[in-house]
Structure formats: C-alpha cells, structure tokens
Amino acid sequence: MCPVDGFLLACAVSAAVVFVAELGDKSQLMALAFATRYRAWTVIVGITVATSVVHLLSVAVGHGLGAALPTGWISLIAAVMFLGFGAWTLRGDSLSDSEQAKAARVGGSALLAVTVAFFLAELGDKTMLATITLATQYGWAGVWVGSTIGMVAADALAIVVGRQLGKRLPERTIAIGAAVLFVVFGLGLAAEAVAELTQVPVWSAVAAVLDHHAAGWIALGIGLAAVLLGAWGRHLAQVPGRRPSAGAAAGWARGLFAVATVLGLAAPLLVGTDVLDPIALFDDPGLVVIGAGLALLGVSLLLAAQAQVVQAQIAAARSGDRVLATGGLRRWVRHPGLTGTVLAMSGTLVMVPTVLGVLAAVLLVVAVQVQVRAVREPALARLHGETYTDYAARTGRFLPRVTPVEHPGLPHREHMRVG
C-alpha cells in the first residue's frame, strides 16, 4: 500500500471510530454547555486545539506500542479494548457537578477556557484510549488527523443540531447504536488477531465449525427462545379482565401458530440430527451467519417488546386505568413483538433452508395477519376507542409508517396500511 493510501485509510478509519465514540459522550455535553455561553466557532476552535494536543500524545503512545509488540497480540488487546468501549458507551456518560460548573462559570479568554476544559476532559477519556489503540494498527499521522477530525465533527454536530436530534432520537438509542458499532469493531479485530496468531484464516475456521448440523442446533436454540418469548407476549397482550377470544378467527390463529411453531422447530431439529438435508443451493456458512444475525435481532426485538409491555402494565396498575402502550418500540410499530417473531423465524430459515421451514414461515405470516387483523386490533379498538384509532392511523402494524393516513379509522378499514 502506498503511503498516501495508508494515510487516507488510517484517517478514514480513525475519524469514523472517534466520531462514533463521541456520540453521547460527555464531550458533546460540554460542547453544548459552552455553546450556550460562547459563540459556536470559538467552541469548535477550542475543541480542535485541545483534541490535536491530546490525540498527538495518544498516537505517540500507540505508535510506540505498535513497534514493540507482535501485531497479533496488539489486535487481540485492541479487540478487548473496543469491547470495553462498547460497554462503557452503553453505560452512558453524564457531566459531573464540577464539569457543569466549569462550563458555566469559566472566565477570561473564551478560546483558552474552552481549550483547557476540553484538554483536561479528554485526558484518560475513552476517545483517547481509542486513539491509542488505532495508532497501534495504522500510521500515526493518519490516526492523528482522522481522530481529530472525528472528534471535532461529532462535537460540532452536537452544537449545530444536537437539540434537534435530541427531540427525534432518544439519548439511549444513540448510546446503544454506538455501543453496537464498538462491539462490531471489537469482534472484527478479534477475528484478525485469532487468524494471525493461529495462522488459520478466520473464514476457514468458521466454515469448518458452521456445517449444517451445527447450524441446525443453533437455529433450534434460537427458535425455542423465540417460541417462549412469543408465548409470554401473547399472554401479556390479552385484554385485562377478559378471557382469550373463542371466535373462529382466534381459533384459526391459534391453530396456525401451533402448526407453524411445530414445523419451525422440527426443521432445524431434523437437519441437526441429519434426518433432513438443507436445500443445497443455500447451504453456505455465510448464510448461516447472516441468518443467525437476523434471528438474534428478531429475538432481541421480541424481548424488548415484552419488557415494554410489562412496564406499561406496571404503570397501568399504579394509575388504576387501562393505558394503551404507545411508547418505546410501539412509538413506531403497533406490534413489534410479532415483527420480531417473524424476523426470528426468517433468520432460522436462512440458517437452515428447508422446504419444511418455508412452509412454517408462510403459516406464521398468515397466523400473524389473522391474529392482528381479526382478533387483537378489534379488541384494542373496542377497549380504547378513539385513542387506539388515532394511534393506528399514525403507526404501522409491523413496520414504521412512512406517511400517516389522511383519515383515522378502525384498523380493519381499507385505508389502513398493512405495514
């Protein structure tokens, strides 16, 4: 790789990593606090100066470590650090009383005040540690420039559009997204470290482990988790004070759910025990990894939806009123638990592609539609009246609604979207 390409790569990677690290960090909070007292350009210049100095020290340390340690062990240590960054970001950051006082009462030169405050705040911060880690992997000059750009860009974003983003994206959502990206970086570095230390290509090791037998058992485990969470969710979704509906539609929905569940669990079980072979065209370790990701995403969505139902029920018990749960995931989707169920089934189908699994997925989709359109939504509409009608008009069933309907109405009317 030519020096220019190496510099640009180091610059791009460092800018992206540090930008992600700064999302939700206390440095953004300090930037917002200073921006309420000083002009934006003064704050940005101060941040740039402080970051340049701190990150120059960081890359000096990182470059020294990179020249002294084997690259395989460096990658492994870096992977552990990035996983730690993910946990740190997920925990969240807040300004201490002394940091808030520093931002509010500092006097003298505005530029000097901002520079000194950010210099002290960044010493030992996770962005400094991230810069040290990056400098062990890439050229010091590119890391220095890129990390400085990433930090200044993130803090400038906080100053310019922080308030607007805060109204649309909850702080916790931003923190979770940043943590996930750090974990992805960490896992990638761990894979590189293992490959270098063992001299075995990562993908070759994965392909050797993830044959269709292993994929079948993994898919079965994920499927069982989805089934248990789905059963819990159906229990929580029952209208308080009422027994489950005994109408024909409810019976069909329960029957279809049961058949889809049995077939959906039988397919990976039969593949895992070598009774049934997956469709050869789609039997690939790469698809197993993708399918596992989709299935785990579906289970996570299902679990989050159930947890929010519990929170809504606790709030209803305290208030003594029947409260319609419209917060969290239900702010965008009316039935996130069912969306997660279908996504989990789709993921296991990708992991272990069989005709039996395809049939199970089709039956599950039909069961979900019958359950929602003919049983659950009419019951919610009767219970909550116009409150649910208005909520249904602005929120999609299974996917976020792009545009709200012009005239609110009951969920089964023609102008309501399927999604």
TrEMBL record:
Entry keyword annotation includes Membrane: yes
The record's subcellular locations are: Endomembrane system
Membrane topology, as annotated, equals: Multi-pass membrane protein
State the UniProt keywords alphabetically: Membrane, Transmembrane, Transmembrane helix
Q: In which domain of life is the source organism classified?
A: Bacteria
TM ranges = 6-24, 40-61, 73-91, 103-121, 141-162, 174-194, 214-232, 252-271, 286-305, 340-368
A Pfam family in this protein? PEMT
Q: Which InterPro entries match?
A: GDT1-like, Phopholipid_MeTrfase
Which protein family is named in the record? Belongs to the GDT1 family.
Give the protein's recorded name. TMEM165/GDT1 family protein
**Taxonomic lineage per UniProt?**
Bacteria, Bacillati, Actinomycetota, Actinomycetes, Pseudonocardiales
